[in-house]
Amino acid sequence: MIDSSLRVEHLQAFAKEKQILYDISCRFEKGKVTVLMGPNGSGKSTLAHVIMGDPKYTTAQNAKTHVSGLFLNKKNILNLPTEEKARLGLFLSFQSPIAIPGVSVKELLRASFQNKKGSNNKSVSALNTRISFFAKTLHIDPNLLNRAIHEEFSGGERKKIELLQALILQPAFAIFDEIDTGVDVDALKIIAKGVRELQKQGSGIVLITHSERILQYIEVDTVMVMVKGKMTHVGSRELIDRINRNGYRDLNTL
């Protein structure tokens, strides 16, 4: 049986000598939507960056279990470089995407696509068709595609471009770090539609968020809660409702 999951097992992470993540274990499934919530500073973004191989963080074995890792299709990919993880199908949308002067959106999309899937005349033609189709789906002005990536883009435009990249690449797992912040309600609905489309393509979706705004438009399969660098709760959408009513402290009574 093919294991179509991304598993984190007994992960510990450090920024310099400060421990940020403590014995994190969790599992994400292809074609499913997982919401990762928690107070500010709980380690949600750190977990995403460690998964993608950000060199700012180091990892260590759990002293008790002597087992830790990041498993994709049962293969431990924890220590692979970011570029290789991307080729294997992992994607991270940044909380604050940076501008890249001199590189257009189309050039970035083509380079990312070719890095993952290779290049030939047929694939380039198909890529151009996909770019046009999904740009229209996300209500992205075609002129934006020829501009330098994220240079003088609005918050909503930046988030849409990040989502467009995911739709083009069709990753096995896409992690979106607060893709719902800084956007108006109309843009939020469009972004939610794009996330649903990506899920329909078979990607596993991980949404890191502080708010339930985008969750009004997306069917959630699993909710995970992090507090102070630890994974404290895993459950259904009912967890979101409880957090909204009473905050994170109330979860201690579960």
Key terms:
254 residues, alpha/beta, 13 strands, FeS-cluster_ATPase_SufC, Rossmann fold, 6-stranded mixed β-sheet, 28% strand, 7 helices
Describe it.
The chain is an alpha/beta fold. The protein has one domain: Rossmann fold, CATH 3.40.50.300. It contains seven helices and 13 strands. It has helices spanning 44-52, 82-88, 105-117, 121-137, 155-169, 185-200, 238-246; strands spanning 5-15, 18-29, 33-37, 57-60, 69-72, 75-76, 90-93, 100-104, 148-149, 173-177, 204-208, 222-227, 230-235. The strands form three sheets. Strands 7-10-11-3-12-13 form a six-stranded mixed sheet, sandwiched between helices. Strands 1, 2, 4, 5 and 6 form a five-stranded antiparallel sheet that branches. A hairpin with a 2-residue loop joins strand 12 and strand 13 (230-235). Helix 3 (105-117) packs across helix 4, helix 3 (105-117) runs parallel beside helix 5 and helix 5 (155-169) runs parallel beside helix 6 (185-200). The two termini are 35 Å apart. 35% of the residues are buried. Residues 6-253 form the ABC transporter domain. It comes from Candidatus Gottesmanbacteria bacterium GW2011_GWA2_44_17. Belongs to the ABC transporter superfamily. Ycf16 family.
